[in-house]
Amino acid sequence: MKKKLTTIFTVAGLLMLSNACTDLKEQVLDETLSAKLSEEETVNGLLAPTYALLPNLFQHTTYFALQEISTDEAILPYRGGTDWGDNGIYLALHAHNTTSTDPNVNNTWNQLVQSISRCITAIEGLKTATSPNTALYTAEARGMRAYYNMVMLDLFGIAFVKEEPGTTSKIIRGDEAVKYIESEFLAVEPVLRPKATVGPGRLNQAAVWSLLARLYLNAAVYRNIYAPTFDFKAEDMDKVIQYTDKVINSGQAKLSPDYFAIFGNDNHTNEELIFAVDQRADLNGHNRMAYFSISGDQFPLAEFPAANGTDGPGITSDFYQTWVQAYGAVDPSRDPRFYQQNMSIYTNAADTCVNDADYKINRGILRGQQYGALRVNGAFLRCPDGKLKVGKLTYVTRNRSDLPVSFSEMIDFTTAGSNYNTGYRVEKYEFSSKSNTGRNRGEADIVIVRLADVYLMRAEAKLRKSNDAAGALADVNLVRASRTKTLAPPALTSMTLDLLFRERGFEFYWEMLRRPDMIRFGKYEGKWTEKTNADVKKRIFPIPQTAIDGASNLPGYLQQNDGY
Length: 564
Description:
Blueprint: E1 3-5, E2 18-22, E3 27-31, H1 39-52, H2 54-57, H3 63-69, H4 89-95, H5 103-126, H6 134-156, E4 159-161, E5 170-172, H7 174-188, H8 195-198, H9 205-223, H10 234-250, E6 273-277, E7 285-286, H11 288-291, H12 317-327, E8 339-340, E9 353-354, E10 363-366, E11 368-369, E12 371-373, E13 375-376, E14 379-380, E15 388-392, E16 394-395, E17 400-404, E18 406-407, E19 425-427, E20 440-442, E21 446-450, H13 451-466, H14 469-481, H15 497-508, H16 514-520, H17 545-550
Antiparallel strand pairs: 1-3, 2-3, 4-5, 6-21, 7-20, 8-10, 9-15, 10-19, 11-18, 12-15, 13-14, 16-17
Helix pairs in contact: 1-5, 1-6, 5-6, 6-7, 6-9, 7-9, 9-10, 9-13, 10-13, 13-14, 13-15
Keywords: Cell outer membrane, Membrane, Signal
Protein name: RagB/SusD domain protein
Subcellular location: Cell outer membrane
């Protein structure tokens, strides 16, 4: 039995061996149980595990939780005193009181160290391979090792250097870690293929240029994580500009006219994506980015009356107010990045019966009363003509039919602020049409880096290097003007670092960039809803106690980060 795998995928924990085929644009690998393996099948099988855990890393309770719930963008209270309590870990994460036993921290760490280990195994196995793709696959494995180490450095302040599977890794920090990751990316960059050849789901040339720009932009933070102010060196900013220029001038990516198409179920072919977690349906990906925030009484698919949300995190009032302040008397929905209405019932009260094929929930930041398919005793109600009956939603599944699914701006850790309907919600990624439970079978690729970030990184480097406000403004306005499916956001007339920080929030909310952005812009020690901790030691997370205990036979090898 053969199953097509796009990116390169493997059953978690198993080294599955693959054979390759090629379509018009990107290399596609197939998984096979063939007993006799060709050289090409063998090298494909060695590379496959280096990508395999990316969907796990980018789940809602791993990387997303650390990068978003720790910030002013996302807050997850103890819903109704019954849901998302989890021994207070999400309350602590948001308030910067996380401990070394937090399972989200532990799970994220485990995904990273396992992925680094798999890259090392692949590099070692490829040393004796004779396939024509050996050099390319070695470069991919080495580049992925650098990427995972970059994430490790960002989250935990350390990186691992290891070349031989049987040896002990060397732990490095600060400038040494930055230089190591930089050298690895630079070594593989000439070997990797353009995005058009391999697709956004594999490490490609434009992806490495983008990751190098991200590394240089954050290098001042990584070199001295607890510094009261960061030294953004001119030579680093020059390199940010150099590598963002490479991406932009290469033509390997284009800005999407439709903002929400970037996060749609068919986004694998969206030209704005540069590097992403490939989640097309045949990969059995997860739908957590779409289901995590919306209500448990929102059922987005006419075909699957069991697929719903989970009443997870909402955005803080603090973050919402940045939109309000930016648009003044105009509602923030004026910005096509804020909201996309997909059900006309919101503007046409008579439209209560909807064809199954036309039923899609709204996208973006969801406020106020929500409408959707009405579900009773596990089945959707139907109009006399057989269409789906749509109306005002209440919390029927919570046995609270008296409580409307009407999302409020207020959300906090009080009893009133922790109800099921508190907080405006985010439905940025499209709900997968294949997700029969709401949780798994995600189709939308999860963005790691896209072209808009490349432009905004370049804008930031221009500001930080020489206060080139005009150049930065041009980059920002170019991105804003590109969203032409509807009325594009109005052009800005000035640019400062504070305005750029705000703009990054508008463009990249819910994309796991907020924590490093807040640290780099000096905002992470600020105050927002339910967060007053200003300890700079909380900029990085604790090393899991289980990891420290596991290394106890090597005294002094793995030391806990300061402040934990």
